[in-house]
Specification:
Layout lengths: L7 H6 L6 H19 L1 H11 L8 H4 L3 E4 L10 E4 L3 E7 L9 H10 L5 E8 L14 E4 H14 L4 H16 L11 H21 L4 E5 L3 E6 L4 E6 L5 E6 L6 H7 L3 E5 L2 E9 L12 H20 L22
Parallel strand pairs: 3-4, 4-5
Antiparallel strand pairs: 1-2, 2-3, 6-7, 7-8, 8-9, 9-11, 10-11
Length: 334
């Protein structure tokens, strides 16, 4: 099970049922407003890139830019409006939904009827946009991963204030958790994959040395080894690859006894509780990556042995769900 996220957007998003696009638009608009007010140099660069150079503002003009959401105009409701005294831009935001019939055409008509001479229309999507034949073509097609990259670039060019940096981190983490932005693939890929496979092999061997049935398992979030059927699991989560995690899966634990143990953490899981313990492989005490292969195996075997001794003191074996009755396709808890 992954540690609970401290990302406020992720926590609030679960309540945005059927309001996914609106929630994302509001979060983005809030970040833009804050940066325009507190980080004008970076904000004007982001807005300029976002609008393909249409809004090319000075730092002084940044605080005069209006950022509005869900602007009701009778013939339509543009998701995001960027307005100055002389310029007006609409940005239609999409995640996975399609454009409505002639939606962009209606927005273009609204722009033309606004009385503002300089106007522009943009479409911001998660996947490549599919603009139907006969539909008005936007002045720019944007993707969320591009927006994330532009924000990240400006954050590296300027020394953001602590609150600005925190808000940017929260927003980018929110996009990343929803797979709307990706990190760059670097030359470390080949070695990293080999190292991950080697670690999993070592964990399998350590489990076998402890007399446990072991099975390798993994998905887009983690990789590791099931132990004793599905009673326990040991491995790494890709979001925190430096932490080796041992946790109970099908085997429930006694909450009070586990808390008195004072080691690891206890979380609700289904109708019971599970227990988790972490080992920081990068810590000076462990110094795992500087060790020889034989020494690394000793660390893993010793850590697994310690975890198994501890978990025996807190597990509720009589209440455990039979691993034989579980489907092999059942996903591991997170």
């Amino acid at each position: 099970m992954a540690s609970p996220s401290n990302n406020l957007l992720l926590r609030l998003h679960k309540w945005a049922w059927r309001q996914d696009e609106n929630f994302l638009t509001e979060a983005f608009a809030h970040l833009l407003r804050y940066l325009l007010e507190n980080e004008p140099e970076a904000a004007v660069a982001i807005v300029k890139t976002l609008t393909g150079g249409f809004l090319n503002l000075s730092y002084e003009e940044a605080k005069l830019l209006e950022v509005r959401t869900q602007v009701f105009l009778g013939e339509g409701t543009p998701d995001l409006e960027l307005r100055t005294l002389k310029q007006l831009a609409y940005i239609e935001v999409k995640l996975e939904s399609e454009l409505g019939p002639l939606q962009l055409s209606r927005y273009r008509s609204l722009l033309q009827a606004s009385g503002i001479e300089q106007t522009a229309l943009f479409l911001l999507t998660r996947y490549p946009a599919n603009v139907a034949e006969g539909e008005e073509k936007p002045d720019g097609l944007l993707r969320w991963y591009q927006v994330a990259e532009w924000i990240s670039q400006e954050r590296t060019r300027y020394s953001f204030k602590p609150v600005s940096s925190f808000l940017v981190d929260q927003f980018l983490e929110f996009l990343g958790a929803r797979n709307m932005t990706m990190g760059q693939v670097t030359w470390e890929l080949s070695g990293g994959i080999r190292a991950l496979r080697t670690l999993t092999d070592m964990l399998f061997e350590a489990a076998s040395a402890s007399g446990l049935r072991a099975r390798m398992v993994g998905d887009k979030n983690f990789m590791g080894v099931y132990l004793d059927g599905k009673n326990y699991w040991i491995g790494v989560y890709f979001e925190r690859p430096e932490m080796l995690i041992f946790e109970t899966d099908a085997m429930p634990v006694n909450k009070e006894t586990a808390e008195r143990l004072g080691i690891g953490s206890v979380e609700e899981w289904g109708e019971g509780h599970s227990w988790e313990r972490e080992l920081n492989l990068e810590s000076e005490e462990v110094h795992f990556f500087a060790r020889s292969k034989a020494s690394q195996m000793q660390v893993l075997e010793s850590y697994l042995e310690e975890c198994l001794k501890l978990v025996k003191q807190i597990e509720i074996r009589d209440a455990k769900k039979s691993s034989d009755e579980e489907s092999e396709e059942q996903p591991k808890k997170e």
